[in-house]
Amino acid sequence: MEAYSLNRSVPLLAEADIVVIGGGPAGIAASIAAARCGKKVIVAEHSGQLGGMGTLANVSVFMPVGNVTGIYREIVEETLPESLPDSHDTSIAPQYNPFLLRHYFNEKLEKENVKVLFHTTFISAVKERDRVTAVIVHTREGLFALKAAVFIDGSGDGAVAIDAGADYTTGREEDGLTQPMTLMFMMQNTGKPVQRSLPEGCYTYSSVEELPQGRHLYWERNSDGTMLVNMTRVKGNGSKVEEVSFAEKESLRQALSVADYLQRNGFETYTLSHIPGQIGVRETNQIVGRYTLTEQDIVEGRRFADVVAQTNYEIDIHSPDGKRGTDERRVDGYDIPYRCMIPAKVEGLLVAGRSISATHVAMSSMRVQATCFALGQAAGIAASLSIDTHCPLPEVSMTELHRELGKQGVRLLKEDEPVASK
Ligand SMILES: Cc1cc2nc3c(=O)[nH]c(=O)nc-3n(C[C@H](O)[C@H](O)[C@H](O)COP(=O)(O)OP(=O)(O)OC[C@H]3O[C@@H](n4cnc5c(N)ncnc54)[C@H](O)[C@@H]3O)c2cc1C
Q1: pLDDT value of residue 414
Q2: Which of 193, 220, 260, 421 is most buried, most CB within 10 Å of its CB?
Q3: Using a 6 Å cutoff on CB, does residue 378 contact ligand 1?
Q4: Domain ends where: 245, 274, 303?
């Protein structure tokens, strides 16, 4: 490939104790947790909103994890109080309004004194030896540097870690294929028959088998007549420029076509009411960390001394090879260790959220939002402890980390307490 070298000096825009890249579930919780430890925190977010896939891609449901705790519990309490379970070890799967959640996150981070820079995209990591000391970001005013003592990669793609030289894997071990992407959209019951329109280039689906996922998957909310639809599917890796560019166009064709299909099959009074500005990306890269979570760990329900998150969300693999099936397998509950967030070869950086060190199958279970909030919260505290105690991230005391998690409202179930059944 022809290459160009870019050698220019970039002004320092700001300095913080901790810079978080990505304002999705992991980045949000990381920034709140670190700010609560008294740290100055900046979040650099590529888009114009907080919430990651949960709002940007209209995901709009918190899948059940069996341990509703910490910042995730607080979010449910403050935005969906009717769904808040009495105890932590209960499973809930509430649907939420992504527009209201987006506003809530803006307000929440402001109250927590976290500075958010929107339309600010991580470009490159600056290192001294193996340590990340600054990141170069692209903003509406051009390129700048952000400096910090510790960085947290919440980009979902492991973008910072990979640029900094961390090893990573992508998709299935045998062929590198990732879970497909989905454009989730909403329909609204108007109470009267609606005019259908199927633009040129779209498809006329005539049976369930012909639909992109070969199934119906939607959530109707009777209280306000909205319906959330998860029925498109495009094969590809969302971190590859050509594949995501194709997927954006193909998923829109599918969304318009599925809406038309539903309007012909029982939803004659529903109009298309919201299509988000970008496709949902389930899986891209996993860093190689100090520990890699495996299928065996989650099937056997392994517990770890350095546990930072717990979940019993199922193995949930939308077919990566373009087929219509979904591999769904029950899981009884397991721990995720802190070491999955520490890239093996890079210092001064933690990776939180869906791109932690995990195999393709393990990732399919740990990827849901509540788990990403839990990982982010632990990363924010660990980063803060490493600054306070002047110790490298891998050496952060687990006793201190667990104590601070407890102070921040996290209840980790003990080894003899099963993670709640669904
Ligand atoms: C179609 C679909 C359906 C799903 N359904 C559910 C569900 O029902 N329930 C559930 O709980 N979970 C669901 N998930 C999974 C869940 O939404 C994600 O796994 C979760 O949001 C991951 O959180 P994260 O913080 O790791 O990353 P993300 O949510 O991906 O957030 C990453 C953030 O980083 C930003 N970013 C990326 N690159 C850069 C960069 N270079 N510089 C700056 N910012 C950057 C992005 O804009 C984004 O805001 C679904 C996912 C998809 C795609």
Answers
A1: 81
A2: 260
A3: no
A4: 274
Of 226, 254, 274, the position where a domain reaches its end is 274
| Residue 52 CA to ligand 1 centre (angstroms) | 4
Range of the domain at 191: 185-274
**Ligand 1 test: best mutation among 53, 182, 326, most atoms within 8 Å of CB?**
53
Domain-located, residue 413: no
Closest atom, ligand 1, to C-alpha of 282 = 53
Does 206 map to a domain? yes
- What is the rounded distance in angstroms from the CA atom of residue 391 to the CA atom of residue 55? 36
DSSP reduced 3-state for 384: helix
The answer to whether 19 and 135 are in contact (CB under 8 A) is yes
Which of 170, 174, 147, 138 is CA-nearest to residue 47? 138
Measured in angstroms, how far is the CA atom of residue 24 from the centroid of ligand 1? 6
Kind and range of the H or E element at 15? strand 12-21
Per DSSP, which regions of 253-325 are E strands? 270-274, 285-287, 307-311, 315-318
Please list the ranges in the chain whose pLDDT falls under 50.
422
* Predicted TM-score (pTM) above 0.90: yes
Give how many domains the chain has, as a whole number. 2
